[in-house]
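Hypothesis: this fold can be encoded by more than one sequence.
Test: take the structure tokens below, design a sequence, compare later.
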């Protein structure tokens, strides 16, 4: 059995190439992976989170980003594009901070799709948990009204499943969002 030989690149080459690329790529320890596009429901759900976060964080020392902002996991030499991410870290918001990635997010939200669910639930969950500043990681189903919340506590990471009629508490940014608002206009019942 033959295996394809993949040329590894360093992090600097990846970051430079990503600024010129017409498609987005994630980077993990020298390997580069192209990203697929999402559905209307996916975009609507991510947009609903971003709209609520953007409005809620206005005038506060925090920022929310959608789709095009990478998160760097320094310990793994990895860069991922979460669907929505928020940071309150001065080092991420400083004028001289890297323009294309965050290093200290407090909240990361991934809207699950068939092509990304395994990676989001395993690889990214373990990777993101290595970011000291991260308080919450949300996995949002795009086929049914269900949000899986992974929350850092003094005892470790706790997992909670929320569904219709529930509200998602994002303590890291002080925002509570009802499930109905998250799925508004998505066509997901």
């Amino acid at each position: 059995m033959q295996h394809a030989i993949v040329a590894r690149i360093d992090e600097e080459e990846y970051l430079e190439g990503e600024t010129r690329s017409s498609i987005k790529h994630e980077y993990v320890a020298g390997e580069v992976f192209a990203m697929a596009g999402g559905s209307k429901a996916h975009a609507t759900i991510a947009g609903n989170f971003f709209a609520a976060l953007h409005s809620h964080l206005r005038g506060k020392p925090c920022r929310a980003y959608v789709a095009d902002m990478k998160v760097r996991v320094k310990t793994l030499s990895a860069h991922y594009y979460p669907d929505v991410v928020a940071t309150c870290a001065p080092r991420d918001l400083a004028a001289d901070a890297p323009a294309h990635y965050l290093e200290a997010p407090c909240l990361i939200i991934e809207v699950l799709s068939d092509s990304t669910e395994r990676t989001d639930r395993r690889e990214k969950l373990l990777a993101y948990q290595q970011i000291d500043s991260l308080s919450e990681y949300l996995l949002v189903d795009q086929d049914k009204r269900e949000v899986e919340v992974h929350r850092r506590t003094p005892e470790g990471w706790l997992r909670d499943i929320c569904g219709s009629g529930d509200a998602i508490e994002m303590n890291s940014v002080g925002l509570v969002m009802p499930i109905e608002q998250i799925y508004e206009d998505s066509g997901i019942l």
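DSSP finds five helices and 13 strands in the chain. The longest strand covers residues 146-153.
Hypothesis status: open.
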